[in-house]
Amino acid sequence: MEVKGIDELGPWLDHLVALYLDAYQGLGEYAYTRPRDVRHYMRWLFKRAPHSFFLAVEGQRLLGFIVADSQWLEEGEPVGEIHEIVVAPGAREKGVGKALIEKALEHFQQEGLGKVGLWVGERNLKAQEFYRRLGFRERGKVGHWIRMERPLP
Question: SS3 of 149, please?
Fold first, then answer.
């Protein structure tokens, strides 16, 4: 498996939309459910972080992706923000998510950031436990979203 950045969204867009929709089945309250909305979201993500939209691939197969925004502000302070991490259902529990998070953390460290954060759905218990194992801690809640953060070395 390789984790790499992309230079343009176009060649990957259909694959990203399909992966997103597949990965979020059963978690519709936390995700877009219409392909048109997912396409719009992918374009927004790429505009936010064109140099840190990372894919996990094996050959030609897309296993997952992460969007690591180093230009995000939280309460006026810069923070590395993980807007999205998606792993194909068949690639879960095989190190793909961890490799994607590690790539994002490396990117944030290179950018000189001291903290990374993300939002996770309150019912998405598997994801919450995954983030805890990687050093994230709950920092608050808004609606059905839980804020998790971790310091960067």
Answer: strand
